[in-house]
Amino acid sequence: MNICVVGLQWGDEGKGKVVDILAEQCDMVVRYGGGSNAGHTVVIGDERFALHLLPSGSIRGDVACVIANAVVLDPEVLIGEITGLAERGISLEGRFFISENAHVVLDYHKKEDQLREESLGKHKIGTTIRGIGPCYADKVGRSYAVRMGDFRDLDALSAKLETIMAYKNKLFGALYGAEPTEAGAIVEKCKLYAEKLAPFVTDTTELLHTAIEGGRSLLFEGAQGSLLDLDHGTFPYVTSSNSSSLGLPSGCGVPARMVNKYIGVIKAYTTRVGAGPFPTEQDNEIGNFIREAGNEYGTTTGRPRRCGWFDAVAVLYGVKIGSIDSLVLLHLDTLSGLKELKVARAYEIDGEEKTFFPANIARLAKAKPVYETLPGWDEDLTGVTKFEDLPANAQAYVRRIEEIVGTPVGMVGVGPKRSQTIMR
Ligand code: GDP
Ligand code: IMO
Ligand code: MG
Predict the structure, then answer these.
(1) What is the pTM of this model?
(2) Cα dist. 29→49, 143, 171, 183 in Å?
(3) Mutational pocket test of ligand 1: of 12, 51, 263, the residue with most ligand atoms within 8 Å of the beta carbon
C-alpha cells in the first residue's frame, strides 16, 4: 500500500504529525518536493521535533527515508538535522537516501532570495528566505545549477562554482549593488558537505521502484500545501514547486497510479504565512483567538500565521486536483470556546455563486465568502479519544465539512501529540 499525504490549504496543516503516525505501518517515507521552507512538527510525549528536510518518518528508527529528485536541498540545514537527531539517539545509518538529481541550495540562493524580497518592498511574496525560488530558478535555467551528484567530483564542482560565482557576483552587483563573494569560501563549504552527505547520495528512482516491486509500503510526504502550488496555487503568492500531489510523479519518478491512497490534511480553520489572498481571513479578535489557541506561529520562520474561518471552497479545490480519497482534520481542539463557527461553502464573484476555487488572484480578489454558521462548543477536547465522545456540536462541525467537501474525514486531531488523534 503506497500512500501520499498532502496539505490542502496554504501549508502547516499538520502533515508532520500525520506522516509520523502513518509511518508506523510503512517501510519508507519519501519527500518529493520543496526544501527547508517546510517545517514539519512531530510531538511524541513531551518531545518535540521540527524537521525541515528530513522526512517526518526519520524519527522512527526502523523506517527508510528518501529525499527525492525534486527537493531542493540545503546541505547546512540537512547536516544540522542529522546531527540533531543523532544527539537525541536517532541514527540514519543505512536507512537514508538522497537523490543524485536533487538540486543544492547554496549561500548565494539565500542571498538572492533576501535581496529580491527586500528590493520588492511592499510587493514582496513573503518567502521564508531559504533560497527556494532562486534554487528552482537555477534548476530550470540549467547552466548554473548544482546537484547532489556533483559532490562526487569535487574538482569539477570547484570549476563549476567559479563560473557560477562570477555570474552571480555580476548579477547581484548590477541589480542590488551587493558586494562580491569569493568562490573559494563556497568551494570549501562544499568539500565539507560532500564529506558528510555523499555517502547517502544514490539513484532514488531505482531505489523506489525496487522497493515497490519488492512489495514495500511507501509513504509520500508532501511539503507546503496545494494552494501554494506553483502552477495551481494563488500565483505569484506561491512556492516555486508543485506542492500539491500533482508534484509527486515528477518529484520522485513514481507514477501517480502506483499510489493507492491520497490523504489530504486540513486544519479545522485556515492559516496562511506570507503575502497573498485569503478570502476567509479574520484579521480581528477571532483570528487572534485562533492564533493563540492553536499556537499559530511558523515552524520555520517563527512568523505569526494569518488565521481565518474554514474555507471549504479552497479545500474542495485541493481535493479535486489532488485526487484525495480521505481527509485528516486537525486542530479541532483549537476551536473550543468560540460561540459560533463559520464555514465558507461558496464564493460570490460578480454576483454569481461559485464553488470552484478561482486560483487566479484577480478573480479571487473579488470573491466574497458565502458563510454557513454552525454552533460552537466550550469543552476541552484534548483528552477525547473516540469520535462519539466529542461534544455533539464538534461532531456536527466535522460531519458538515465532510458533506460540503464530499470526502470522508478518517482522522481528527485534538492536540499536537501523536496520541491526541481520533481514528474513525
Ligand atoms: P506541517 O508543516 O503541515 O507539518 O505543520 P506544522 O508542523 O508547521 O504546523 C502544525 C502545528 O500544529 C504543529 O505545531 C503541530 O504540533 C500542531 N498540531 C498538529 N495537529 C494538531 C492538533 O490536532 N491540535 C493542536 N492543537 N495542534 C496540532
Ligand atoms: P510546510 O511544509 C506554510 C510560503 C511562504 C511564502 C511562500 C513562498 O511547513 O507546510 P518560499 O520560501 O517557498 O519561496 O515562500 O510560501 N511557504 C509556506 N507556508 N508552510 C510551508 O511549508 C511553507 N513553505 C513555503 O510563507 O508565503
Ligand atoms: Mg509547517
Answers:
(1) 0.98
(2) 16, 31, 39, 36
(3) 12
